[in-house]
Amino acid sequence: MRVMGVDPGLTRCGLSVVESGRGRRVVALDVDVVRTPAQTPVPERLLAISDSVEHWLDTHLPDVVAIERVFSQHNVSTVMGTAQAGGVVALAAAKRGIDVHFHTPSEVKAAVTGNGSADKAQVTAMVTRILALQAKPTPADAADALALAICHCWRAPMIARMAAAQEKAAQQRRTFAAKIEAAR
What we know:
Blueprint: E1 2-7, E2 12-20, E3 26-35, H1 42-60, E4 64-68, H2 76-95, E5 99-103, H3 105-113, H4 120-130, H5 140-183
Parallel strand pairs: 1-4, 4-5
Antiparallel strand pairs: 1-2, 2-3
Helix pairs in contact: 1-2, 3-5, 4-5
């Protein structure tokens, strides 16, 4: 499975692509950070992110896109920019029929380090180790994008089992409702 991990942001948007192998084996294929100047109007910044993401989607052809879920922060403008950047990425993937999954920062940290409240240095160190990289990915947005992709690779089997169980439960509810209706 090829996963594009995205750490959204207006100033720095981390992009990565990894491929999962057997078991927990994951290989990094590419990583980069899209940067937009703070003084540039937001629509132009979103366009720059969109153009880069579309290029990545067309070049790397991921099976799924994993995006960090926006969570409450103290700075509302930061949350807005992060949400807008994540929305641009989700839209580009949806236009291509690529599944999009959102993961919270604590899910990603727990998957990669075993600790849902790990700091950026711990995440970077574990990403470097898991992917057997020669050097730590920098800036932190690049490491975070890789961590998101790794997290999704490792969580995907459980996500698929949960979706199958939900579908089976829904089918059983429909069958039961049909039996009740037929008995009336």
